[in-house]
């Protein structure tokens, strides 16, 4: 394949369309969450990921798993956790079986804020998808997003 290969050009155009859709959705949600709840998309995502943890074997995520789930580096995730901890939305504690391990849990205040922000997130997502569906190049991607179902658990 060469750089002018039609398959590569189509692939590149598809990637650009997906990137455009992602950017439009994220920007819309970011504005809505910031103005309505003082949360960024990443903060909302982190609260959501951590709220799905449970007690018992495999119930708590390691920081690398959390970083993967919110699509950030481990250091950026640690900074994000610290900001939310400073706001009283998260707590950290040492793992009982491995003193090097640190777990992070959502506080009651964090769960309350997450519950309050969820309808805002969902509404902004719906509005962003509806707007994007008006663009012929994004319509198939919008349909694909609408048909996706998230995995039951984070690996």
Written description of the protein model:
This protein has 155 residues and is mostly helical. Helices cover 63% and strands 6% of the residues. It has helices spanning 6-37, 41-51, 63-70, 74-86, 108-132, 139-147, and strands at 90-94, 102-106. Strands 1-2 form a two-stranded antiparallel ribbon. Strand 1 (90-94) and strand 2 (102-106) form a beta hairpin. Helix 3 crosses helix 4 (74-86). The model has no long low-confidence stretch (mean pLDDT 88).
Strand content of the residues, in percent? 5-15%
Mean pLDDT score: 88
Q: What is the 3D shape? A: globular
C-alpha termini separation = 35 Å
Low-pLDDT stretches = none
Helix content: 55-70%
Number of helices: 6
What kind of sheet is the major sheet? 2 strands, antiparallel
CA gyration radius, whole angstroms: 18 Å
How would you name the oligomeric state of the polypeptide chains in this document? single chain
The chain-level structural class is mainly alpha
For the secondary structure, the number of strands is 2
- H and E string: HHHHEEHH
Output the strand order for the largest sheet: 1-2
How would you concisely characterize the structure shown here?
It contains six helices and two strands. It is mainly α.
Key features of this structure:
155 residues, 2 strands, 6 helices, two-stranded antiparallel sheet, mainly alpha
Write the layout of secondary structure elements.
Layout: H1 6-37, H2 41-51, H3 63-70, H4 74-86, E1 90-94, E2 102-106, H5 108-132, H6 139-147
Antiparallel strand pairs: 1-2
Helix pairs in contact: 1-5, 2-5, 3-4
